[in-house]
Amino acid sequence: MIAFIIRRLIQSVFVMLAVGFIAFAMFNYVGDPIAIMVGQDTPVEQRVQLRQALGLDDPAPVRFLRFVGNAVEGKFGLSYRTTEPVANMIAARLPATLELSLVAALMALLLGIPMGVFAGLYPQHWLSRIMLTVSLVGVSLPTFLIGILLILVFSVLLGWLPSFGRGDVVRLGWWTTGLLTVSGWKAILMPAFTLGLFQMTLIMRLVRSEMLEVLRTDYIKFARARGLTNRAVYFGHALKNTLVPVITITGVQLGSIIAFAIITETVFSWPGMGLLFVQSVLFADVPVMSAYLVLIGFFFVVINLLVDLLYFVVDPRLRAQDTTGRGI
Amino acid sequence: MNGWVHRIRDSDLYWSFTRSKLVVVSAAITLLFFIGAFGAPLVAPHNPFDLASLELTDALKPPVWIDGGDAAFLLGTDDQGRDVLSTILYGSRISLVVGFLSVLFALVLGVGLGLVAGYAGGMVDALIMRLADVQLSFPAILIALLIDGITRSVIGQDRHSDIAVFVLIVSIGLSYWVHYARTVRGSVLVERTKEYVLAARVIGLPGPLIALRHVLPNVMGPVLVIATINLALAVITEATLSFLGVGVPPTEPSLGTLIRIGNNFLFSGEWWITLFPSAALAVLVLSVNLLGDWLRDALNPKLR
C-alpha cells in the first residue's frame, strides 16, 4: 500500500515536470518577451541589458528551475495582451470555471444514477430505450451544437433562461459565487447541463450495465430469499455495489469537465478560465497559455492521484493484493 | 469482373451491411455528403465565394417555405447574401478534407512511432510511450488548441491565416496519433516474435526493412478501423476549433465556421443561418459514427 502510494506520487511528479517543461519551452522559446515589453525604438544595448536583468541569458536548466520555482509560487509573468499579471487574471476567473464544473459533475451524478438504475431495472421499458437512444445521439454530437440548441429553445424561443454570463454574483473574500442568487442559478443551468451531458450518459450507461450484472448475482437471489423488499434489494444491495466504478469514473472525468469547459464557456460567454484560454490562443498570448497548461495539468494529476488512492480506500479487495496498475 | 461482384456479395461484410437498415441509411447519407461536398462546384446552386455574384439585397432571406423567401435560395441567405445551401456544401468539403488529412497525418505519425517503439524497444520505446501516456491524460481538443496557439505565435498572426488549414490539420493530427501508436506497438510486440520475422532476420535483412515490409502489413488491420472511427472525431474537432475561432478563416468557412458566424444572428430571428449548418454537421457526424461502429463490430471477430 505504501509502496503503491510512493510509486504513484513519483509518477505524478514526473508528469507534472513533463507538463512544466512543455510550458517552460513555450514560455521561453515562443515569441520574444523583450520585443513585447519594450517599444520599437529601444536601442540594442538596452535590450541586452534587459535580457540580462531578467536572466534570459542564463543556461536553460537554470531558467527551467527558476520557472518551476516561480510556477510553484504562482508567478507566471505578465499577459502579452493586457499586461496584467497572469496569476491575477486566472485567479479572477477560476471560481467561475470551478463552480460550473462542480455543478456539471453534480448534475451528471444526480441525473445519471437514477436514470441508470431505472434502465437497469427495466431494460425493456420504452423509457429506458428512449434514454439509451437519446444518450447515444447526445454523445456523438459536438458539445457546442448542444449548447446552441439549448440557447435556441430556452433563450430565443421560450425566453426562460439567459444565454450568456453568470447572472448576479456574490463576493466571498476573493471567491465570487453565482450560487447564492436566483439569476446565478438560472444562468448556470444550461452551461452546466451542456458540460455534464457527456458524463451523465457515461454514468447512466455504467450504472445500467453494472445493475444488470449485479442483479444476476447470487447474493441478490439470497437477499430476495430472505424476503427483503424490492427497495432494499435494489438500493441497499444492488446500487451500493455499482457505485465504486461510478466514483472512479466521476473523479477521472472531473478533469475532463474542467478542460472541456473551454467550449461550453465560449458558447455561453461564461467568464471563466476556458474563455480566457481561447482568447489567449487567438491572441498568441503565450504566458496565459502556459499558465493555463500548468494549472490544468496540476488539476489532472491531483484528481487522478486522489481517485487512485480513493479506489484503495473504497474497494477492500484491492488492498489485499498488491496491484501495480492504475485504478482503471 | 463478375467474380469481383460475387466475392463482394458473398463476403461477411456485405452480409452484415445489408442486415442493418440503420447502417445502409447512414452509408447512403455519408455517400450523399461526399458527392455534395466534393462536387460542390457542380451541385451547389450558387458559388458563395464568387464575390461578384453576391448582392447585398439578397442578404438575410429566409428559407423558401417562409414568407419573404426566394426560390433561388432554398435554405435562405446569410448576412452577406450567400446562399446557405451552397455554403453548407462548400463548407462540408473543407470539413471533410481537413478531417481526412488530419486522420491521415495522425495515422502516418502514429503508425510510424508505434512501429519504431515496438520494433526498437528499450529507451526509444520507453520515451515514445511515456510521451503518449502524458498526452493521453489530456483531452485532444486541449492539445489541438495549444498547438494552434503555439504555431500562431511562432509564425505570426498575419501569415497564420494563409496556412490556417495546414495548421489545423497538423494540430488535429498531433492530438490523435496516440491511439494508432499504442495499437500498432501492441501488435508489433506480438508479431516480432513470430517465425516469419525470425526467418527474415536469419536471411540477413536489415531491421528497418523487416519492420516496413514484413511487420507493417500485418498490423494495419486494426489501424484502419481506428481511422474510420477517428474520422468523425476529427470532423467534430475541426468544427469545434473553427467554432471557437481558431480554425479555418471566415473567407473559406467550414461547417464549424458557418455555425460560429450564424450564431450571431440567433437572437435577431435569423435562425436558419446557424441551424442548417448545425443540422448538416450533426447528420454527417452521426452517420460517419454509425458506419465506423458498424465496421468495428463487423471486423472484430477476425481481428481477435
Description:
The complex is a heterodimer of chains A (328) and B (304). In chain A, 75% of the residues lie in helices and 2% in strands. Chain A has 13 helices and two strands. Chain A has a two-stranded antiparallel sheet. In chain A, helix 5 runs antiparallel to helix 10. The two termini of chain A are 17 Å apart. In chain B, 44% of the residues are buried. Chain B has 304 residues and is mostly helical. Classes of the chains: A mainly alpha (328), B mainly alpha (304). At the A-B interface, helix 1, helix 7, helix 10, helix 11 and helix 12 of A face helix 7, helix 11 and helix 13 of B.
Short description:
The complex is a heterodimer of chains A (328) and B (304). Chain A is mainly α.
Q: Whole-number radius of gyration of chain B? A: 23 Å
Give a quick account of the main beta sheet of chain B: strands, pairing sense, barrel closure: none
Which range best describes the helical content of chain B: under 10%, 10-25%, 25-40%, 40-55%, 55-70% or over 70%?
A: over 70%
How is the CATH topology of chain B named? Answer: MetI-like fold
Would you report the number of β strands of chain A? 2
Rg for CA atoms of chain A: 24 Å
Total DSSP helices of chain A: 13
The amount of beta strand of chain B, in percent, is: under 5%
Compressed to H and E, one letter per element, the order of chain A equals HHHHHHHEEHHHHHH
Secondary-structure element series of chain B: HHHHHHHHHHHHH
Biggest sheet: strand arrangement of chain A:
1-2
Uncertain segments of chain B are none
Average pLDDT rating of chain A: 81
Largest interface: A-B, 39 and 37 residues
Distance between the termini of chain A: 17 Å
